[in-house]
Amino acid sequence: MSESSAEAVAAVASATGAAGNWRRATGIAGAAIGVVAAGAAAGVAIERLTVGRGMRKKARLALDSTGPYGSLRGTPGKAYADDGTELYYEVDDVDPAAVPPLSPRRRRLFGRKAPAPVTVVFSHGYCLSQDSWHFQRAALRGVVRTVHWDQRSHGRSGRGVRQVQDGVPVDIDQLGRDLKAVIDAAVPDGPIVLVGHSMGGMTVMALADQYPELIRDRVVAVALVGTSSGRLGEVNFGLPVAGVNAVRRVLPGVLKALGQQAALVEKGRRATADLFAGIIKRYSFASRDVDPAVARFAERMIEGTPIDVVAEFYPAFTDHDKTEALAYFADLPVLVLAGIGDLVTPSEHSEAIADLLPDAELVLVPDAGHLVMLEHPEVVTDRLADLLTRAGAVPAGATVGGYGSTSSTAQPG
């Protein structure tokens, strides 16, 4: 065992105590399990244990106050899911004069009259929010109309009504219907480009599975980032197989128990923020040169997801299988992109999607983890801009704005 691993084990042992301190134990478990569900797992060697807790807290506060990430806002709107859940979205509009000439595909879909401008709809991942697309949103402002929305129980959207009132677990099909409600409210007509990361990509697949006519009639391109069409129950999160199997056996029950003690677990998560931060960084990013403000931004989104929401959503991923729905994208320009170092939805899952869509562009980003759009925004933005050009969503000569960098030596964009 390495020195840092030994320190981590000792820290956990000290925190729980021989007699077992429930509050601290559930805090550590809540932190670890929260990140498993958000794109992480427990069992990570914790960095910087020798740094004073007060100093780390001050550093987090400083990053919160200076980091610009997640600060972009658009015209707000609300859609309502089929169970009454309030879904929050924002629209970044574009000057109608900037709408490009009709492409051959758009002529076929909409006739020769000028349709509404193309709208790019971004769907975010588990335990994140619409703000996770910060760099891409900044780059596309003024270039193309975009819609960013918060999945149910995430960000500024309301808690899932079925989950709260009826105790019905979330499934990916529900998220597909939620996306349809957002499209109906925010993009009632005109061509659409669908972009989804992780759970957001699964949401896009569920939309296609339930509303194939929408894909056929209105969708002009699709981007699937760091996502999977199924078999997520086989992912080992970079851990030994025996350990993963043991976690899978107990995790549903542990999550349920933690969800029933949400207030206590949330207090524990705050008390173990340093452990939580180390886990998030390990499972969100693969490169070492990540802007600390970006890492803190990701941490803030994930830690803002209540443990009972984590518990509600977790079972949906094991059951997720939308492989057959990919066929609805076969005739469209498709971008499939993933980080090679993604431990949450491994890049092999993206390769499997691309194998079923042989005309899709497959981009595997070296030195990138699950949050590739924050870690290497230049790659994601460039490939997305190219997709939009191929789909006729933006003129070929359009200039996409600055996307910033996550490098610790660069200024935020």
Molecular structure report:
Helix 8 (199-210) packs across helix 9 and helix 10 crosses helix 14. A hairpin with a 5-residue loop joins strand 1 and strand 2 (86-92). This protein is of the alpha/beta class and 413 residues long. The longest helix is centred in the middle third of the chain and has 20 residues, at 241-260. The two termini are 40 Å apart. The protein has 17 helices and eight strands. It folds into two domains: 3-67 and 234-315, no CATH class; 75-232 and 322-390, Rossmann fold (3-Layer(aba) Sandwich). It has an eight-stranded mixed β-sheet, sandwiched between helices. It has helices spanning 3-16, 22-39, 53-66, 104-110, 134-140, 161-166, 172-186, 199-210, 212-218, 241-260, 262-271, 273-284, 292-303, 307-319, 347-356, 372-375, 377-390; strands at 75-80, 86-92, 119-123, 145-149, 192-197, 219-225, 334-339, 361-365. 49% of the residues are buried.
